[in-house]
Amino acid sequence: MALFLLVGASSCTKNNLVVDKTPIVTPAPYAEMLFTSFTAKPYNLVPPTPTAYAIPIGVTSVASVDRTVNFTYTSSTGAVAGTHYNAPASITIKAGQAIDTLKVTGILAPYTTGRIDTLMVKISSGAIPAFPGKDSIKLVIQRYCPVVLAAMGGAYNDTKEYNAAGALQYGPYTVSCVNLVMVPGSTTRATCKFTNLYDWGWNDISAELDWTNPSNFRVIIPQQPTGGVGAGNPPFVRGSTTKSSTFSSCDNSITLYCDLLNSSGGVTTANYEFRLRR
Asked: Ramachandran region of residue 244, left (φ > 0), alpha (ψ -120 to 50) or beta?
């Protein structure tokens, strides 16, 4: 009888069914960025007024009260809040909601030719912890203007040359970008020729402008003879193998990094820079 009473006291029954009294544990909520891929994201500032970059933020459970998600911003390239971008320190996920949007807005003025910034956006510690691996994203910020070939062509009267250390070597003088035509079947690639490059009797130098990647405008210069004659006049030239040549459709400028080669194809001068400006 004592054993029967003990067993009866340790369980509950209803209609001969045992009721499980194990407590239900609700997982703690996490905040996360709702991207399918966490590779660096290009953020192109299109004049005259850049559109904000929207970062979707979610929480793993819905609550009956408003909840705050905090953020920190760091930049290895020197982007400063209020100067290069604006972004809030936090956003509020409203009661009954699981998703909101963090907006980072680039400031166009400081993004002149060649400036590219990286900005790390991270969910910081707060009432809602970040979900590991989904708590941060890197934005690559730069100015972007649609490419107009007619605007890229013509004379660049303020062309200057610099050595690999950035010291002025020669100029200013005039280089022209001529015969600009689209590559057949492409909407983001064009071929051209640079006349009077190096200002020492060179052939017209063939190149390709490629803006397929809006975050990486490129100028591709295959190895070719310069036609240069005389001591010190390189007989061959090609695009640098370590630094990318580029162009800006915002201010119609071109920057070429070239390797100057001898008659055997050996590099005599690496990363020689031509800055083509109007």
From this structure: beta
The conformation of residue 51, written as its DSSP 8-state character, comes to P
Specify whether the CB–CB gap between 55 and 104 falls below 8 A. yes
Please state, in angstroms and rounded to a whole number, the distance separating the CA atoms of residues 146 and 33.
Answer: 30
- Taking a C-beta distance cutoff of 8 angstroms, is the pair 246, 238 a contact? no
221 in Cβ contact with 256 (< 8 Å): yes
Note the pLDDT tens digit of each residue in 112-156: 877 899 999 999 977 788 998 999 999 999 999 999 999 999 999
269: helix, coil or strand? Answer: strand
pLDDT digits (tens, 9 = 90+) for 41-62: 999 999 999 999 999 999 999 9
Contact 205, 177 (CB under 8 A): no
Q: What is the pTM of this model?
A: 0.71
Residue 115 CA to residue 86 CA, distance in Å, equals: 17
Confidence of residue 20 (pLDDT cuts 50, 70, 90): low
**DSSP letter at 7?**
H
Distance CA 65, CA 94 (A): 7
Which tokens hold the place of 78? 């020197």
Strand duo 136-143 + 17-18: pairing: unpaired
Six token digits for residue 208: 């390709």
Calculate Rg over the CA atoms of the chain.
Answer: 30
pLDDT digits (tens, 9 = 90+) for 170-229: 999 999 999 999 999 999 999 999 999 999 999 999 999 999 998 889 999 999 999 999
Which pair of tokens denotes residue 84?
A: 């290069």
Mean pLDDT in residue range 234-254: 95
Q: Are 104 and 62 in contact (CB under 8 A)?
A: no
* Structure tokens belonging to residue 6: 């003990």
pLDDT of residue 3: 43
